[in-house]
Amino acid sequence: MEAPLLTRFTAFLHKEHLLRPGDSWLLAVSGGLDSVVLAHLCVLAGIEGPLVHCNFQLRGAESDRDEAFVRALAERYGRAFQVARFDTAAYAASHKVSIQVAARELRYTWFRQLLGAAPAASGAGIAAAPTTAAPSTAAPSTAAPPAAAAPAPRLTAIATAHHLDDNIETMLMNLFKGTGASGLRGMLPFQEQIVRPLLFATREELETYAAAEGLQHVEDSSNASDKYTRNFFRHKVIPLIEERYPDVRQNLAANLTRFRDLEDLYRQAVTRHVEDLLEPHGRGEWRIAVAKLEKARPLETLLFELLKPFGFSPAQAGEALALLHTTSGHFVASATHRVIRDRRFLIICAPAGQGVSQVAIEEGQTQVAFTEGVITIAMEAAPAAAAAPPAAAASLAAAGPPAAGPPAGRAHAPRASEPLALLDAARVTFPLLLRRWKAGDYFYPLGMAKKKKLARFFIDNKLSLADKEKVWVLESGGRILWVVGHRIDDRFKVTAGTTHALRLEWTQP
Predict the structure, then answer these.
(1) Could you tell me which residues come within 8 angstroms of residue 403 by beta carbon, excluding any fewer than 6 positions away?
(2) Where are the domains of the chain?
(3) CA distance linking residue 56 with residue 50, whole number of Å
(4) Is 183 annotated to bind ligand?
(5) 281-349 has the same fold as 5-144+151-244
(6) Which CATH architecture has domain 281-349?
(7) Closest CA to 440 of 423, 422, 452
(8) How do beta strands 81-86 and 126-133 pair?
(9) In sequence order, which residues have a C-beta less than 8 Å from that of residue 406 and are 6 or more positions away?
(10) Does the pLDDT value for residue 359 go beyond 80?
(11) Are 295 and 322 in contact (CB under 8 A)?
């Protein structure tokens, strides 16, 4: 017999390491059935956090009805309520994007602002400033009373109500868009600062639960329109496939797990090939031996993975493949680098006479190349950081001591080179920006409560003029999180409350 939904919900949280004691979430509630069930389960499970709602002002009175419904729901549960009203149509027109893209950008930008992970926006697209409703004094009957003098919970993530059917639709859409292995595994339970604790449950299971618990919700009339891609797949594509394959939903759900594991194996294999084929050669230059590359399989895919950190698109990787059959001097250029055919090598370097000054790093990217070397990027569970091998112990100090550790003593002592940084992934927002430092830059050096200008930091650490010219910084949401090779920012350090760590390792040329 299937376990109750609440039992499976808490088991999923534990299995995916989505929640630690003292954490709380921003509960994204639209008022629809899925998000109402999510809010109810979080209340029953004792997960703290406000209800947040986006009014995109696209459906007139219906949009205002949804806002009022979620506000009342927050009062019933004794939760804080926050709402932002957006002029979504104007934003879409000014940014030349679809309404769907505009709504997604506005929604997640605001959510991350609430988490404190991004600077306040200028207000473009926001018709009214977010408002906060004080929580009701009456707690829901299903929730346990709060402990006396309990510490204030810390907001660690945005919780959305994406469920298993949503993930199946996402996988199919990604398949037809050609997004590759990362697209086939669909949405992840934890990704950037977003948690999706309902990915284990189907829409039908949520409907059954809502009916059994007597949960009320509102219907978004736009969900019936097939002009939106997701609705087209939901209402047309999947039902049509079910006529021939009745078990298609169960089969695709099983494939999501397989594809997630497959992508992990794929990334491991690619990493081994990259380490074998890509050779640093002096400052800002890398080489791939043509004879060795020609023996690699699958050749085109591996060449794309080799060139991707240097800004090359899949189409440009195909063009670079043709360099294997050309003479010396031919090249293919990305926005930041060139790959040039030499007699025995493909040489990757910055364009002649130009210095690359910044590189964008997208979520899921595992390596990025710049003039000072290569940064390898990986996500790992926080306990793995604590269990690092002894050889890396000194470098792991760059991530700071755990919050529950011994009292802080002297400030972290910088070394000549700290090639490894561990950061609290929940505080990091993609895309990241890797760039040269500039006058006026400042950060909060690890172990310090006050900000310090980089120019003063360099003086204190006795960097020469030549050394300073080589310094790059890594930004997240406009804030420096790592002075590469020197010090991380205290605001991004790993603590005892960290669930996932972003591991950055710098390899110099």
Answers:
(1) 495, 496, 497
(2) 5-144+151-244, 281-349, 358-404+411-507
(3) 19
(4) no
(5) no
(6) 2-Layer Sandwich (3.30)
(7) 452
(8) antiparallel
(9) none
(10) yes
(11) no
Q: Token pair for residue 34? A: 């899925």
Answer yes or no: pTM beyond 0.70. no
Q: What is d(CA 114, CA 146) in angstroms, rounded to the nearest whole number?
A: 24
Task: Judge whether 189 and 12 are in contact, CB under 8 Å.
Answer: yes
pLDDT in tens, 120-149: 333 334 443 344 443 333 333 333 444 444
DSSP 141-190: TTSPPPPTTPPPPEEEEEE---BHHHHHHHHHHHHHHT--HHHHT---SE
Distance (Å, whole) CA 58 – CA 473: 40
Decide the pairing of beta strands 373-381 and 452-453.
Answer: unpaired
Q: Please, is 235 exposed, middle or buried when counting C-beta atoms within 10 Å of its C-beta (0-12, 13-18, 19+)?
A: middle
Question: In a 3-state reduction of DSSP, which class is residue 384?
Answer: helix
Q: Which residues contact 367 (CB under 8 A, 6 or more apart)?
A: 274, 308, 309, 374, 375, 376, 377
Sign of the dihedral defined by the CA atoms of residues 130, 135, 141, 145, in that order = positive
Closest by Cα among 14, 142, 24, 128 to 76: 142
Domain made up of 5-144+151-244: CATH architecture: 3-Layer(aba) Sandwich (3.40)
Taking 3-state DSSP, the helix, strand and coil percentages for the chain, each rounded to the nearest 5, stand at 40, 20, 35
Tens-digit pLDDT profile for residues 367-386: 998 888 899 999 888 754 44
DSSP class per residue in 416-451:
S-B-EEEEEGGG--SSEEEEE--TT-EE-BTT-SS-
Beta bridge partners of 53: 83
Q: Is 23 annotated among the ligand-binding residues?
A: no
Of 130, 114, 93, which is closest to residue 49 (Cα–Cα)?
114
Neighbours of 289 (CB within 10 A): 15
Q: CA 374 to CA 309: how far, in whole Å?
A: 9
Chain Cα centroid distance, residue 75:
31
CA distance 67 to 71: 6
Q: How far is CA 424 from the centre of its chain?
A: 12
313 is in an annotated binding site: no
How big is the chain by its Cα radius of gyration, in Å? 25
- Both tokens assigned to 350: 């910055």
194-208, 354-368, 403-417: range with lowest mean pLDDT: 403-417
Let me know: does 320 contact 308? Beta carbons within 8 Å.
no
Strand-pair partners of 155: 24
- Is 395 known as a binding-site position? no
Candidates 26, 216, 47, 69; CA nearest to 143 is 47
Of the candidates 45, 124, 156, 100, the one whose C-alpha atom is nearest the C-alpha of residue 497 is: 156
What CA–CA distance (Å, rounded) separates 237 from 240?
5
